[in-house]
Write a structure and sequence with these properties.
With 242 residues, this protein is mostly helical. The protein is 79% helix and 0% strand. The protein is globular and about 45 Å long.
Length: 242
């Protein structure tokens, strides 16, 4: 046992975190998309807190290494509604059973994959940004997957803009979600320590993403991410429903 979690399960979560960190360092998001379904499947008691701690740590690392191109104006419209969405997400975590949260994670991932596959284009403006911020606040707090709503808006921007803007958003958004969960007593010290134990994998994943970005076509990386995310989400949905 490691901090109350079976060592074998921790190993599975560690692999998912490493893969997710590598993906996020490559394309701007992926830690939650890859990690959250796996964590919800093998250790549902750790959702959403574990991935929120890791998402914040990963975002801070990205901000430290890649801070050019951030769309501060867009973040100014997206972040305030995130606060309201966080309140709704905290209520979901406090009242919904683990099974329903697992279903929500699976649906959120599949919806994100579907929108990405179809490359839906939405305008980035004063209407779409606050809406994405609110939805992200709800889903990010309840399921630890808050990136897709904003990523869908920015998916056609240059990679540097996408990665740096999402990094700032993830850092602030995850911090808001953790504060909200703490206010209602939904935070656990053992999960925070487990996140700290796994955090070196984020550094490794970020380092691995550099040669991946240089050597693999973006389209190939994107396709692989979508396949992994969809498969893990489908397994989680089946297990949660049954």
């Amino acid at each position: 046992m490691i901090l109350g979690v079976d060592a074998g399960l921790v190993a599975i979560v560690a692999v998912a975190v490493l893969v997710g960190a590598t993906v996020q360092g490559t394309v701007g998001l992926g830690l939650g998309l890859v990690g959250a379904p796996v964590v919800a499947l093998v250790a549902p008691d750790l959702v959403p807190e574990l991935m929120l701690w890791l998402a914040m740590a990963m975002a801070l690392q990205t901000m430290a290494t890649e801070n050019r191109g951030t769309d501060w104006r867009g973040l100014g419209w997206a972040l305030p509604p995130r606060v309201l969405g966080t309140v709704v997400g905290v209520w979901v975590v406090a009242t919904a059973p683990t099974r329903l949260i697992g279903i929500a994670v699976g649906i959120m991932v599949l919806l994100s994959v579907a929108l990405t596959v179809r490359t839906v284009t939405f305008p980035v403006n004063r209407i779409s940004l606050p809406l994405a911020g609110f939805v992200s606040g709800v889903t990010g707090t309840a399921t630890s997957i808050g990136g897709p709503p904003l990523a869908v808006l920015y998916q056609h921007h240059p990679p540097t803009v996408l990665r740096s803007t999402l990094a700032v958003y993830f850092a602030v958004g995850a911090a808001l979600s953790l504060v909200g969960l703490g206010v209602v007593g939904e935070l656990r010290a053992d999960i925070a320590w487990l996140a700290l134990l796994l955090s070196p994998l984020l550094v490794v994943g970020l380092a691995l993403s550099v040669p991946v970005r240089q050597r693999l076509p973006r389209a190939a990386v994107r396709a692989g991410v979508l396949i992994v995310c969809a498969a893990s989400a489908l397994v989680l949905l089946v297990v949660s429903v049954l």
